[in-house]
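Exercise 7. Given the encoded structure of a 282-residue chain, write a plausible sequence.
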């Protein structure tokens, strides 16, 4: 039976709480890890627990164990949230990932689109079209754990949408339905849920809607960030990001087209190719 441990952990927000083994088990199950390896991982972590340990330390212990003892796709899934944050400080790589994910799900997308509103001009992070619907997407990116996206972002997203919708319907008519959409790589506050539900703002946070949060969509699409390729030095990861190679799927294509031979060694290319073959489904 799973019980709460008396060991106190420190969350990224600075809050303290008892270590809850069930949360770790749930997190490991989400990666697709087998029951046996998940149990072994929990046992490994327990040997390193101490009062005052941070969630960052716990993540590093678990990640280190999975790196050596689990299939690479499980390791990649477990490290997904922090790897997304490691794309920063700019939010542009996250916008590209959102665009790539939506493309997999049948949307036609554009990133960084300048749109004329009724009152002012806006730069929209991602514009997505599907059937007769067009979505104006605000991608709110945070590169530090423990931060929630608050209602001010939702208010801002909806206000921009209203200005754009007014101009679009005036110039193009109402044959196309326009919608606002907020996508974030973190959790959101309860006020954001309330406001989004009230005004009809599409909302995709890291975990919600359940089964269709950003983490679920990325894993299902096989569009894990290139920051998970731990065998590549960080300075080289930065060079890849500068070229717009933000996902392992994009890196796979760049390797096949010989576009990264000036950055990666032959050994790095061979090792990385083996790993991303396991997770790139697109």
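Solution.
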């Amino acid at each position: 039976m799973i019980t709460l441990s008396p060991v106190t952990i420190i969350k990224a927000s600075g809050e303290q709480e008892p270590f809850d083994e069930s949360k770790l088990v749930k997190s490991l199950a989400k990666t697709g890890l087998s029951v046996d390896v998940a149990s072994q991982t929990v046992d490994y972590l327990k040997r390193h627990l101490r009062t005052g340990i941070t969630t960052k330390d716990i993540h590093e212990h678990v990640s280190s164990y999975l790196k050596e003892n689990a299939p690479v796709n499980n390791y990649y899934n477990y490290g997904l949230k922090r790897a997304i944050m490691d794309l920063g400080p700019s939010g542009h790589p996250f916008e590209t990932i959102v665009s790539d994910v939506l493309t997999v799900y049948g949307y036609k997308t554009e990133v960084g689109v300048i749109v004329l509103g009724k009152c002012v001009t806006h730069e929209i992070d991602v514009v997505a079209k599907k059937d007769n619907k067009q979505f104006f997407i605000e991608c709110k990116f945070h590169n530090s754990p423990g931060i929630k996206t608050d209602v001010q972002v939702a208010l801002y997203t909806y206000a921009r949408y209203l200005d754009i919708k007014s101009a679009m319907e005036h110039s193009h008519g109402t044959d196309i339905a326009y919608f606002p959409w907020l996508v974030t790589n973190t959790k959101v506050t309860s006020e954001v849920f309330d406001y989004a539900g009230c005004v009809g703002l599409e909302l995709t946070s890291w975990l919600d809607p359940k089964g269709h949060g950003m983490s679920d969509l990325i894993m299902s699409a096989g569009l894990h960030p290139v920051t998970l390729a731990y065998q590549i030095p960080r300075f080289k990861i930065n060079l890849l990001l500068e070229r717009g190679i933000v996902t392992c799927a994009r890196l796979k294509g760049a390797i096949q087209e010989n576009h990264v031979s000036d950055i990666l060694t032959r050994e790095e290319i061979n090792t990385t190719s083996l790993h991303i073959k396991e997770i790139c489904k697109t």
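Remark. The longest helix spans residues 151-172. Students should compare their own answers with the one above.
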